[in-house]
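Fig. S4 source data, part A: sequence.
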Amino acid sequence: MEPVSSNRAHGGTQGVYTHQSSASGTAMTFSVFVPDHAPGAKLPVLWFLSGLTCTHANVTEKGEYRAACAEHGIIFVAPDTSPRGDDVPDDGDYDFGKGAGFYVDATQEPWSKHFRMRSYVEQELPALIAAEFPADLSRQGITGHSMGGHGALTMGLRNPDKFRSVSALAPIVSPLNCPWGEKALGGYLGEDRSAWREYDACALIEDGARLPALLIDQGEADNFLHEQLKTGLLVMACRKAGIPATIRMQPGYDHSYYFISTFLAEHVAWHAERLKG
């Protein structure tokens, strides 16, 4: 792990780091905010998964989470959305390839060699964080935005023993039922739609996955709401499964970081309540 930058902020240290990933076979960059803490203390970890076209930098520079993380004593980790580099395949579209890994382990060529963001976020990066930072991996929460909200929901539903708390901002709730998801999952996983279900929050809930609680914020003025995000499908899935879900439709808010930065501190506080002790 090599440091890229380090800055003091809100009584803590905001760092950016790079390392060679065995999961992706590329160099990967991620950011970590560590609040000041007592010597020897171990802190809970909140993962933030970013959306289409983003890197670690978008939330790091615009997320406005550090004050809340410092207040609640939470490490905040933001990985990239996909592998990058000259050897990494890309199709030139913003919603597939570089910047659009969809947090899957691809099975189709040429994507399967590098596009293994599921393994990277679920296994490789947590091990690195535990080795290099004062992180208590028995207390992990996960959140994300848009494509990253999809990643947070599906990783949380697949790993209830790993993530104590799960939330999302404007998530893609059912890739099986939207153009973004059909393009990405079809390209990365192939035509067998049954293989897509483990990457679809609504399908996972239908197949028996459960969460003890869920927090979702969604802007009512989001131009992707009706065609791509389809929050109503998650409302119905949670209601049918009996999952205690707080799904808040926020009047006037769109899909941007103006929206994310408004509500992200509330999500940090919500996770902090569930990551205590």
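Fig. S4 source data, part B ends here. The longest strand covers residues 135-144.
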